[in-house]
Write a structure and sequence with these properties.
By secondary structure, the chain is mainly α. Helix content is about 80%, strand content about 0%. Among the domains are: about 140 residues, Tetratricopeptide repeat domain (Serine Threonine Protein Phosphatase 5, Tetratricopeptide repeat, Alpha Horseshoe), CATH 1.25.40; about 80 residues.
Length: about 450
């Protein structure tokens, strides 16, 4: 939709060019046919006024009263065809374009009209044919090169797209679409100096272009100049408040400055604009979680996976918060989904085990732990011994001894948590608290179980 709007804008700009081209024959007519030339001048002036201040339909209606001497004027017919395309009347525009092509097959504006008509109709063969003919006459024709660049961009062929945008700029140094496209391709290719140069040139031409404000904001953010980045993105939002990406960026950069309220407002606006898109819910969930607003975080993680069940990164957090809320079945299901993404995670396997324990699903618990032990071929590993401890409800002394010998700090903290949890589940509260305290004393939150140990120790 946004691309169509840009193309329609281009068509209206073409109108100004066509009117300028028409002014010369009209001026000659003024000397030879005063009566007719007066009508022609009045028509052109009125059309120019409507194009600047009226609607496309109003401009098209004027052609019903076009003076006889101008009815076959190529430039005006091209203008009419462009306006018809802009109003969605593709078949009528195509008839005009075909008729003009029969008479003037080398006229660049006629070729442009045919190319735009073919594009709007979805006729790829004719579109390619007319682009080829345009470029044979004008190798640096802006519109034709931009179209080829757009095609390459959709295929993510950034280098080819960049080169076509560059050719368009040779033909028209101030073409906004070409400058924006060239800058974006350079941005994707990490040619930052070239990208910044293009964006700054475009900003000087049109500081009200929302996309250029957005990209200049991204560069400021990459340099940790978040306040300046926020200024740019707010300018983009003022011009295009319905663009969800801008609200996401505003939220991210606001959060980086410590403005959590601003981040929350921005991401809520993103959710309001695209309520079926999962990412806004995920961002809000993370924000609430970071602030210790656990109930809200849990609610938004639920919404995240509801909107996108394949977003596995949310399942671990959902499992953690559901566990903290005492929602054992929900926690189990969340960790089961997380395990699908990371099937080797002993943490997820043991959390599922603990959830089954909490629900008193003893048969299911034994079946699950038996399947885990079969897959753990190293019977001397701590992973195997901890799973067996939960299965047999014994062997904890050996596990404790093995943990004391563990040299990896993260692994040791994780194993201590599952030993503490085992004691909690089997009613040995004093031992459970002893080992939970050992975990929290590590002050090394490099594993999610550290957080669960804090909760178990009463640290919120």
């Amino acid at each position: 939709m946004k691309k169509l709007f840009q193309k329609r804008t281009v068509i209206i700009f073409c109108a100004v060019f066509f009117l300028a081209a028409v002014s010369i024959p009209v001026a000659f007519a003024q000397n030879s046919q005063p009566a007719n030339s007066s009508q022609e001048i009045q028509f052109v002036q009125k059309l120019s006024s409507v194009l600047q201040n009226g609607t496309i339909e109003q401009a098209l209606s004027l052609f019903e009263s076009i003076p006889e001497n101008l009815k076959n004027d190529t430039e005006l017919l091209c203008l009419k065809g462009s306006l018809l395309l802009s109003s969605g009347k593709t078949e009528q525009a195509e008839k005009i374009a075909s008729s003009l092509f029969e008479k003037e097959p080398k006229n660049i504006e006629v070729l442009n009209l045919n190319f735009m008509a073919a594009k709007q109709k979805g006729d790829k063969v004719n579109k390619a044919k007319f682009i080829k003919q345009i470029l044979a006459i004008e190798p640096y024709n802006a519109e034709a090169n931009i179209e080829l660049a757009d095609e390459q961009s959709l295929k993510k062929n950034w280098r080819n797209a960049r080169d076509y945008y560059k050719k368009a700029l040779f033909g028209d140094r101030t073409n906004e679409e070409a400058l924006l496209g060239y800058g974006k391709m350079c941005y994707y290719m990490e040619k930052d100096d070239d990208a910044k140069d293009a964006f700054n040139r475009l900003y000087k031409l049109n500081p009200n272009n929302p996309q250029v404000n957005s990209y200049l904001g991204k560069y400021e953010a990459e340099n940790t100049q978040y306040k300046k980045a926020i200024e740019y993105i707010k300018a983009a939002i003022k011009i295009d408040p319905s663009n969800t990406d801008y609200w996401f960026d505003l939220g991210t950069w606001s959060r980086m400055t410590g403005d959590y309220s601003g981040a929350e407002s921005a991401w809520k606006q993103a959710v309001a604009l695209e309520p079926e898109y999962f990412l806004g819910y995920a961002y809000l969930a993370g924000l609430y979680d970071e602030q210790g607003r656990r109930e809200e975080a849990l609610s938004y993680y639920r919404l995240t996976v509801e909107k996108n069940p394949q977003y596995y990164y949310a399942y671990e957090s959902l499992g953690i918060l559901a566990w903290g809320a005492g929602s054992w079945e929900e926690s189990q299901k969340a960790f089961e989904q997380a395990l699908k993404k990371n099937p080797d995670s002993i943490s997820y396997k043991l959390m599922i085990t603990a959830c089954l324990f909490k629900q008193k699903k003893n048969l299911e618990l034994r079946t699950f732990t038996e399947s885990l032990m079969k897959k753990l071929t190293n019977r001397q590993s701590l992973d195997y011994k901890i799973v067996r401890m939960y299965h047999d409800r014994g062997g904890d002394s050996e596990v404790a001894l093995n943990i004391s010998k563990e040299t990896n700090r993260t692994k040791k903290g994780r194993y201590l948590f599952y030993l503490a949890l085992y004691y909690e589940l089997t009613g040995k509260d004093s031992l459970a608290q002893k080992y939970y305290n050992e975990v929290t004393a590590m002050q090394s939150p490099m594993f999610f179980e550290y957080r669960l140990a804090q909760w178990a120790s009463g640290i919120k």
